[in-house]
Amino acid sequence: MLDSQFSRIFALSTSPKLGGKHFTSDSFLTFITSLSNLRNLKYLFLSLNPLNGMLPVSVGNLSTSLIKFSARSCKIKGQLPNEVGNLSNLLFLDLSRNNLVGSIPTSIGNLRNLQRFNLSNNILTGFIGDNICKLRHLAEIYLGQNQFSGSIPNCLGNVTSLREIHFGSNKLSSNIPTSFGNLKDLVVLDLSSNNMVGSLPPEIGNLKAVTRMDLSMNQFSNRIPREIGGLQNLEHLSLQHNNLQGSILESMSNIVGLEFLDLSHNNISGIIPMSLEKLHYLKYFNVSNNKLYGEIPSGGPFKNLSSKFFIHNEAFCGSSRFSVPPCPTSSKHRSNRKKSLLLFLLLGIALLFVPITYVSIWIRYRRGKRAPQQANSLSTVERERISYYELLQPTDALSDSNLIGFGGFGSVYKGVLRSGTVIAVKVFNLQTEAAFKSFDTECEVLRSLRHKNLVKVITSCSNLDFKALVLEYMPNGSLEKCLYSHNYFLDFRQRVSIMIDVVCALEYLHHGCSLPVIHCDLKPSNVLLDEDMVAHLSDFGISKLLGEDESDLYTTTLATFGYIAPEYGMDGLLSIKCGVYSYGIMLLETFTRRKPNEFEGDLSLKQWVIYSLPKAVMDVVDANLVTPMDNRLQKDLDVVASIMKVALDCCAESPARRTNMKDVAGILQKIKIQLLAG
């Protein structure tokens, strides 16, 4: 008999033998059938074994407890059987690098919990189909290197949990669905080597989290949308071998982290903007085979680029290093009569309108100075209040290219002061009364708070038409971004350290202030990380202060669904125990990598974890944190079990039974020491 742990995990070593021979189709069928007796089987790993058979229909008889099934590079033939849809609890399915043929079975839509779906490098054909859109928890989909045709389902843009889409090297046609603009957490988009047509939709600019975008080897036409310049996290952009026209966008210089940009083999015209010299991380820049002309920039990253990246264009000039003629200088010193007349005309217009503009600005400035200011000024500021006009320059007039976040009460922009200090400017949307209250609340709450794990307010800006807070910039973004983005990975120690930072901030708010502060909207997107990955709690827009004689209060203000304590959501009763509850939910999310609002029906994140403890910790822990074959597996699972218990103690139904932040901090500190000791 297999022991209970092994009956849950089955892994076949590379190059297996069965009776002295490799698996045949019949032996593969017998083998899969025998596994159906393991009713508790949860993990089935067969990758890198020459199974050489068809995937039998009996695969549908495997345990409904199965959550991970990997058979990569096994030389599996034939069609993917419809019965695979019976594996209703599957989270991970990898059948890549095989010889599968036919289409994706419609039953795939039954795998409602599926998070990772990989059928890449097969010989699959047909349409992708709308059934894929039923996978509401899907995070990563790999269908590249097949022969799929037709269009990408428009409904795929409604699967907002998606973080990676890999559809490269197929025969897909039609446009990019505009619904892709809904995929706010998408990190990778690969549609390369297809037959896709039409314009790149402006909605592509909504993909603020994307780091890699490969749309090369298609038939896209018209201009590159200007919205692409607002993708601040973009590192790799390939648009080569299309029919794109227009010019290279000046706004691309705002994509400060860009490392790879390929625009070669298109019909792009005009000049290369000199502002691209600001892209200090740019290592690859190819614009060959276009219709460009003018001077090739020579500063910044262009100092190290090869001349072959600029060949076959209209008329480049510049440094001899690029094998182009020098740019003419005489034109800078000559002017014909038409140019002289035009210059005098423009000068006359300037002389007329500049004084008018100056007077208008002066009048507006005077009005702004006379506008009533907030009664309470922030004592945490490092300088006097900043004016509206002083904020315009560091944020490029609050342009979309500097937008780094947005919420219900406003937007956040990145800026750089003259001193070189990087700032975050939180601008409140004054179209709603709630935004006015949110600004007032943050000013009232933050004026007396000082703690290393709270986001620091540098200054504020307030007049009748405009209200903003200038905050310390957090270069590593939010905990939510680091948890769910492809380009980031938080290990055990980092996650524990971050949650210790948050608990320290909450302990200060609940017990270290003259009046207790309840944050009211505790969630990963409001936990920001500095350059050293130290966590800082932010966004006090709906927080509440408890009076001297109050232990709780009633409110009609509601926070984010999934993190709200029962008494807060149902009765509006608010106390520091509500913050403890929200912290517990966030602690569960940090180590499961599952959002509390992604569960259907009556199931919640808390219940899902309760059902799996104490024996099935492996089922709920983030798969990126543990490896089934690791010799540290049991130690890691014990650590996770301890953390889950702390989290569940925090989010007990009864407020009286919830633990306090000081005890939580002590337990997590011990766990951190245990991890450091190895």
From TrEMBL:
Reaction(s) catalysed by this chain's protein: L-seryl-[protein] + ATP = O-phospho-L-seryl-[protein] + ADP + H(+); L-threonyl-[protein] + ATP = O-phospho-L-threonyl-[protein] + ADP + H(+)
Keywords of this entry = ATP-binding, Cell membrane, Glycoprotein, Kinase, Leucine-rich repeat, Membrane, Nucleotide-binding, Phosphoprotein, Receptor, Repeat, Serine/threonine-protein kinase, Signal, Transferase, Transmembrane, Transmembrane helix
Q: Where are the transmembrane segments?
A: 341-363
Supply the EC number(s). Answer: 2.7.11.1
Q: Name one GO biological process term.
A: defense response
**Matches recorded under Pfam families:** LRR_14, LRR_8, Pkinase
Domain named Protein kinase is located at 398-676
- What Gene Ontology molecular-function terms does this entry list? ATP binding; protein serine/threonine kinase activity
Q: What name has this protein been given in UniProt?
A: non-specific serine/threonine protein kinase
Species of origin: Solanum verrucosum
